TrEMBL record:
It is an enzyme of class 2 (transferase). Its EC number is 2.1.1.182. Residues 37-207 form the Ribosomal RNA adenine methylase transferase N-terminal domain. Signal peptide: none annotated. CDD domains: AdoMet_MTases. This is Ribosomal RNA small subunit methyltransferase A. Keywords: Cytoplasm, Methyltransferase, RNA-binding, rRNA processing, S-adenosyl-L-methionine, Transferase. S-adenosyl-L-methionine binds at residues 30, 32, 57, 78, 102, 122. Belongs to the class I-like SAM-binding methyltransferase superfamily. rRNA adenine N(6)-methyltransferase family. RsmA subfamily. It holds the Pfam family RrnaAD. It comes from the Bacteria. Specifically dimethylates two adjacent adenosines (A1518 and A1519) in the loop of a conserved hairpin near the 3'-end of 16S rRNA in the 30S particle. May play a critical role in biogenesis of 30S subunits.
């Protein structure tokens, strides 16, 4: 039976303004103050194929409280000392599972070894793309990933070929995950309010997420293609020094935004015999 798509109905402005921790501009902090949205973000997790969840940047725990109500073991990682102190004082259920660390630099195997876990959060805009790439690096252990981004970034991650916002982040993420944009969140539900809308998305790892081509070459091809996105692949991939006979293939006459993730895999397979050792 086909599962009915979940509908999201944001309820804005239902919570009081946050008190206790000062938002720090250099950390990109914007504290969510809407309880309804926090609960909906927590509900984006299915709980399938994992029993542990890692929340990135919990701040004062507006999302954390709803994660703790679920049948999962919640871990949080937070770089802000003031927020860490607040979490220790107000969320005793997290004892031993609060990590005062930089997520981008932290070795997650210290926490989860080889156990699967989901990743969730209200992500700082200034490092959200880097967070996605780190999740991709750890995809063998992350079957599900959801949370809030700057709307433009969330849309880009979920975008399909044929659109101007489709790019490196779209292709590399969708090579391994099914991406779904869920709902938009206005600036008014944050303290302090950001200058742009936010967007909530969900990534669910594909059942078969191993690539049919060389993975490192796939990343190189995608990045080289979009670094000169206005050019055809015949021109943007010149650095691969491919033979003229291959470059006459019709796929090289297209621009990168015209290719689906699967088409990029096929392209990589065509290039692979010539470029795998370069």
């Amino acid at each position: 039976m086909k599962k009915k798509k979940q509908k999201f109905k944001p309820s804005f402005g239902t919570a009081e303004d946050n008190d206790g921790v000062r938002a720090k501009k250099h950390l990109g902090q914007h504290f969510l103050k809407d309880e309804g949205i926090a609960e909906q973000i927590a509900d984006t997790l299915s709980g399938s194929n994992y029993s542990k969840v890692l929340e990135i940047g919990p701040g004062m725990g507006v999302l954390t409280k709803y994660l703790l109500q679920k049948d999962v073991e919640v871990h949080v990682i937070e770089i802000d000392t003031e927020s860490v102190a607040y979490l220790h004082e107000n969320y005793p259920a997290l004892h031993g599972r609060i990590y005062e660390q930089d997520f981008l630099k932290y070795d997650l195997s210290q926490v989860f070894q080889q156990e699967s876990y989901a990743v969730i959060g209200n992500f700082p805009y200034n490092i959200s793309t880097q967070i996605v790439f780190k999740v991709l690096e750890n995809r063998d252990l992350v079957p599900e990933f959801s949370g809030m981004f700057q709307k433009e970034v969330a849309k880009r991650i979920c975008e399909k070929e044929g659109n101007k916002t489709y790019g490196i982040l779209s292709v590399l993420t969708q090579a391994f995950y099914e991406a779904e944009y869920l709902f938009t969140v206005p600036p008014s539900v944050f303290n302090p309010p950001p200058k742009v809308d936010s967007g909530v998305l969900r990534l669910r790892r594909k059942e078969n997420y191993s690539l049919p081509c060389d993975e490192r070459l796939f990343f190189r091809v995608v990045k080289a293609a979009f670094n000169q996105r206005r050019k055809t692949l015949r021109n943007s991939l010149k650095t691969f020094d491919l033979p003229d006979s291959l470059r006459e293939d019709t796929i090289f006459g297209q621009r990168p935004e015209q290719l689906s993730t699967e088409a990029f895999m096929d392209l990589t397979l065509k290039i692979q015999p010539y470029a795998i050792s370069s």
